[in-house]
Amino acid sequence: MKTRTKIALLAAGLALAGHASAQESLLEHVVNACEADLKQYCSQVTPGEGRMLHCVAAHEDKLSGQCEYALYEAASLLQQLSTAIVYVAESCQTEIQTLCSDVKVGEGRILTCLEENDASIGETCRQAISDTVGE
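The structure corresponding to this sequence follows.
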């Protein structure tokens, strides 16, 4: 997977993940692993609005192995997260529409709604939640 693709997945996944502490720990991991690269190539870039990610992408051919691997790990985890979200969303589509339609998307609120309505969800939905959350 090219670094540019990994960076794009990272950016999309951070927006998708929604949960602040998960975002921060994943972002901290990448920033810590890429600290030297960020200092060397992106020290003049003002953080925000994806500018740091664009800077890293612009220097993808020069990144350290440590930074490359952290980006790969983050992209892999985010890809797994997005797959899990799609799986639960598809498996629980009816329950989400009927039980959680008034719940704002993000920060795990839909999953919380489904868990709070456990007695009303179908077996397919329950299994998808169990498969992805591990409960």
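Helices lie at 3-17, 20-33, 35-42, 51-58, 65-91, 93-99, 109-116, 123-133.
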